[in-house]
């Protein structure tokens, strides 16, 4: 032991969430050299992922008493489970970040952790990736930006093996077995060798896909534990998968991954975190939702076509990285009607981003609005200066002057309402739910964050004053 107090990370969510914690573990090891790094996670996942994890000691929930007896330099709770918040509220630590239970109530500590909590059913304009948000309360942006992640391995044109992962945590996040059957047959026609993968619960899905296919690819669903899946993945030229835990596992271990982003997922938040992977997404305006609000039964899934996906997979295998498409004609012959292709990348600040490669670009109004709020929250949290917000607002005004005026009007209304709550309130009452839910989409990101912030501060007058100051700082973009 070094004598330095340990750092404890609580991550009691699913396997994919644990893999998305790995970048944080890397940054913590560099930021706090010599401090033991402990991770409390679901044992069914952590035991199997230790070989590919950054250096850390994994603890099971059964060691709760030992965790409570230790003094920590830092505790980061990345779990929304109540038992994690209860533990975070009881430990002895210099600093605690994330949900914490105190006196029977749960509070969220850390700007980015509170911001993430405000994204529930309210993430339309978010551009921060989960893995980056895990870290930004404790790791300076400069240290995040200095990290260079390796891209996926390019296996050349001799390896024709393609893994198809058929499962996902929710049915609406994955194609149906008929899609995978047709995709496998289309890959075989291109002289590729598909094989079905899946977890123990996906055996029936994979069996149905194989039964529906003419080519009868091998069915490996349920055959591997997580270390075995990682080992099998190293022999694949490509892994095609919906947004699921194995997607994060394969991309982290360097397997070239094609993310079929469908259903209630936002690839800006949960696409592969490392650069050089591909994301295929529908061009419907509602993409990136929390849940389907249009009553369409996730019509986005119907936009994915097996034949076109097979053609794209073949071109991806030929190119060293998806970004190489920008300098070659690799996309010639692929019609991107109804879908868009992105590459995972890093933006000028070193944060995760999606670089468009082909297909109809995202709606410009939505893009500019999301850039505006990205700039606003980044400035508020100290990642960059207010000048970034001013620039984003001017770009919005030049392209969509009516939307710019509407945004200004609604922000002024929000400011008046906050002033009214502060002036006429006789007791500490949280803002009504309608404060954020009834807002137009253009102001809902700020209203949702303010709602969470005021509630997190027990609706004190000081919190309302601070919330009003935040609205005023956003409004200053119109007078700069």
TrEMBL record:
CDD domains: GT9_LPS_heptosyltransferase. InterPro entries: Glyco_trans_9 (IPR002201), LPS_LOS_Heptosyltrfase (IPR051199). Signal peptide: none annotated. Keywords: Glycosyltransferase, Transferase. It comes from the Bacteria. This is Glycosyltransferase family 9 protein.
């Amino acid at each position: 032991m070094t004598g330095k107090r340990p750092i404890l990370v609580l991550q009691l969510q699913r396997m994919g969430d644990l893999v998305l914690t790995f970048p944080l573990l890397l940054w913590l090891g560099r930021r706090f050299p010599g401090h033991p790094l402990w991770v409390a996670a679901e044992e069914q996942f952590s035991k199997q992922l230790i070989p590919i994890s950054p250096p850390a000691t994994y603890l099971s929930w059964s060691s709760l008493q030992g965790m409570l007896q230790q003094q920590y330099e830092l505790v980061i709770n990345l779990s929304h489970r109540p038992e994690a918040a209860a533990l975070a509220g009881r430990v002895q630590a210099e600093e605690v970040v994330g949900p914490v239970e105190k006196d029977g109530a749960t509070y969220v500590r850390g700007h980015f952790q509170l911001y993430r909590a405000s994204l529930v059913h309210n993430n339309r304009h978010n551009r921060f990736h989960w893995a980056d948000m895990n870290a930004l309360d404790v790791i300076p942006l400069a240290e995040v930006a200095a990290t260079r992640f390796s891209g996926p391995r390019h296996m050349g044109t001799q390896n024709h093996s393609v893994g198809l992962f058929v499962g996902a945590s929710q049915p609406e996040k994955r194609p149906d077995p008929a899609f995978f059957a047709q995709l496998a047959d289309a890959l075989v026609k291109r002289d590729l060798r598909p094989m079905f993968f899946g977890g123990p619960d996906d055996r029936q899905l994979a069996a149905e896909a194989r039964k529906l296919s003419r080519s009868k690819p091998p069915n490996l669903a349920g055959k591997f534990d997580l270390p075995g899946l990682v080992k099998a993945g190293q022999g694949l030229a490509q892994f095609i998968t919906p947004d699921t835990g194995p997607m994060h596992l394969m991309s982290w271990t360097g397997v070239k991954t094609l993310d079929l982003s469908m259903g209630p997922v936002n690839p800006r938040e949960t696409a592969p975190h490392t650069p050089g992977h591909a994301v295929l997404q529908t061009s419907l305006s509602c993409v990136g939702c929390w849940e389907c609000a249009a009553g369409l039964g996730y019509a986005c899934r119907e936009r994915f076509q097996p034949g076109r996906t097979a053609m794209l997979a073949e071109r991806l295998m030929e190119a060293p990285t998806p970004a190489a498409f920008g300098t070659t004609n690799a996309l010639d012959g692929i019609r991107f009607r109804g879908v868009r292709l992105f590459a995972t990348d890093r933006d000028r600040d070193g944060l995760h981003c999606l670089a468009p490669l082909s297909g109809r670009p995202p709606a410009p109004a939505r893009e500019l609005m999301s850039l505006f709020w990205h700039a606003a929250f980044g400035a508020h949290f100290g990642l960059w200066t207010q000048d970034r917000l001013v620039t984003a607002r001017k770009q919005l005004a030049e392209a969509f002057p009516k939307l710019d005026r509407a945004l200004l009007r609604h922000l002024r209304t929000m400011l008046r309402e906050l002033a009214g709550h502060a002036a006429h309130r006789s007791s500490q009452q949280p803002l009504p739910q309608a404060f954020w839910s009834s807002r137009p989409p253009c102001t809902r990101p700020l209203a949702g964050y303010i709602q969470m912030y005021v509630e997190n501060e027990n609706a004190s007058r000081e919190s309302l004053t601070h919330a009003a100051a935040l609205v005023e700082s956003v409004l200053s973009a119109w007078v700069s």
